[in-house]
């Protein structure tokens, strides 16, 4: 990012790379890096993830990234890391997200070993609300783990990294071997071994159970070596048993066993079962969703809640981390035979291409995204302003407290294109208003609170967005 200045308008609807200044680097992965950036026109900090297009093509994940971007464009939730801008240049794809300064749960586990029960309980509730929001939109995350749960400066949890997320229609099953193996549900492993036809949203709740167990005990419920085969891991889950300390409350043990049931029919697999369990009977989920529950742990603002070696490596390699690389891969041709992604990372089909490469298709079909502009166009008012509302999420106990339609109206258009005889969809943001109409149904909880079901809740917390840390976490499929 460096010292180049821009005389362009500060309007966020015209955001481009020149509008940002790099503050520091905070993460890296196989395809790019993440840095804290400052938008000079808006006078606001964000997290920017920038991925090298050549590396994406070499790893055959260009269309994975497009899928991730399309999913993120449709999301806005208090416990999800939200996307604000996307754009590209000759060498990079840029994603500008919420900035969370609290670090990820993997970092904090490495510092203290395990968390208190109260701390874990709130994280689990916040992630359950995030999963419910996704599943109501037919989105499966498939990579829920401590590395992908980030804390804001107030201590609330946010789900990130949608690189393996996918959409599945009602009644359909996913079939690809996707995720991080220690957190994969047994039905994903069984599908990979040909023992099942597929899996559904229930797999995300298993991952949440593994995370909760690990946060409480400092280790996962099933320990196995990285060299263990998929069959060995599945056998361990099916035939093994989960040990729990005697001092743990019985309702907690039952709750964990519900999340970690190898039977999808018996598993706690939706928000209703999760919230009505005896272990959660004193939790007001309306208050959790509205962020009115005070976290047991608040990250220190006087320290960097991530690995500082990321920034050191960046300083050693480049004085201007983005601009210094601008010409390095310019128009570099891929020398090996490209492949096509069939579903997710780790599953590709080699083929000779007579048509354009993935990056060439990307350059022709990519449409920059701007959340402010999308909301403004959906509103039809022609003016873009960031919300300054610092109030909590409206209570879900009343069906009249719905967010404005403009905050829910980010849709997509799809354009077919062909590569080597295979057809793909151009997943880009639409400029047309959405016809999405949220449902108003709620479900009753034992403590007489009502939980939001099938309805989007969208808020902008400037106080929380002004201090966040977004951390990249690459996944081995």
TrEMBL record:
Ranges of Basic residues composition bias in the record: 324-335
Organism from which the protein derives: Bursaphelenchus okinawaensis
Binding site for ATP: 49
Keyword entries, A-Z: ATP-binding, Kinase, Nucleotide-binding, Serine/threonine-protein kinase, Transferase
Domain Protein kinase: residue ranges: 20-280
Name of the protein: Protein kinase domain-containing protein
Gene Ontology biological process terms from the UniProt entry: G protein-coupled receptor signaling pathway; regulation of signal transduction
InterPro entries, sorted: Kinase-like_dom_sf, Prot_kinase_dom, Protein_kinase_ATP_BS, Ser/Thr_kinase_AS
Single GO MF descriptor: G protein-coupled receptor binding
UniProt record similarity statement: Belongs to the protein kinase superfamily.
Residue spans of biased composition, Basic and acidic residues class: 377-391
Stretches with biased composition (Polar residues): 348-359, 393-415
Family annotation (SMART domains): S_TKc
Residue ranges of the region described as Disordered: 323-359, 377-415
């Amino acid at each position: 990012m460096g010292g180049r200045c821009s005389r362009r308008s500060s309007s966020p609807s015209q955001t481009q790379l020149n509008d940002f200044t790099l503050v520091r680097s905070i993460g890296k992965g196989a395809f790019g890096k993440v840095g804290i950036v400052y938008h000079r026109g808006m006078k606001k900090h964000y997290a920017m993830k920038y991925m090298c297009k050549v590396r994406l093509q070499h790893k055959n994940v260009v269309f994975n990234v497009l899928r991730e971007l399309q999913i993120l464009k449709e999301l806005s939730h208090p416990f999800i890391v939200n996307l604000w801008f996307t754009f590209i240049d000759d060498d990079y794809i840029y994603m500008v997200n919420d900035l969370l300064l609290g670090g990820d749960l993997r970092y904090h586990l490495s510092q203290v070993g395990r968390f208190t029960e109260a701390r874990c309980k709130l994280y689990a509730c916040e992630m359950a609300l995030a999963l419910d929001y996704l599943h109501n939109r037919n989105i499966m995350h498939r990579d829920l783990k401590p590395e992908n749960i980030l804390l804001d400066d107030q201590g609330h949890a946010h789900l990130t990294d949608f690189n393996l997320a996918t959409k599945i229609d009602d009644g359909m099953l996913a079939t690809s071997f996707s995720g991080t193996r220690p957190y994969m549900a047994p039905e994903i492993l069984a599908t990979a071994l040909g023992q099942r036809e597929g899996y559904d949203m229930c797999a995300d709740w298993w991952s949440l159970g593994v995370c909760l167990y690990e946060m409480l005990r400092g280790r996962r419920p099933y320990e196995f070596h990285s060299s263990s085969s998929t069959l060995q891991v599945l056998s361990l889950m099916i035939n093994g048993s989960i040990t729990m300390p005697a001092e743990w409350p019985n309702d907690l043990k039952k709750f964990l066993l519900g999340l970690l049931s190898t039977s999808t029919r018996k598993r706690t697999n939706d928000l209703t079962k999760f919230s009505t369990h005896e272990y959660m009977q004193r939790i007001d989920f309306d208050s959790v969703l509205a962020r009115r529950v005070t976290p047991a742990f608040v990250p220190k603002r006087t320290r960097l809640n991530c690995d500082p070696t990321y920034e050191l490596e960046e300083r050693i390699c480049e004085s201007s981390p983005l601009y210094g690389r601008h010409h390095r891969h310019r128009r570099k041709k891929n020398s090996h035979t490209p492949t096509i992604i069939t579903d997710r990372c780790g599953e590709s089909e080699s083929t000779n291409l007579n048509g354009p490469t993935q990056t060439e298709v990307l350059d022709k079909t990519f449409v920059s995204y701007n959340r402010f502009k999308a909301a403004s166009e959906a509103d039809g008012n022609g003016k873009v302003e960031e919300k300054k509302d610092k109030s909590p999420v409206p209570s879900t106990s009343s069906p009249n407290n719905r967010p404005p339609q403009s905050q829910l109206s980010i849709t997509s258009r799809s354009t077919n294109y062909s590569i080597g005889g295979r057809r793909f969809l151009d997943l880009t943001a639409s400029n047309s208003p959405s016809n999405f109409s949220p449902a108003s149904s709620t479900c009753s909880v034992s403590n007489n609170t009502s939980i939001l079901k099938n309805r989007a809740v969208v808020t902008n917390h400037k106080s929380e967005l002004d201090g966040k840390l977004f951390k990249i976490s690459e996944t081995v499929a």
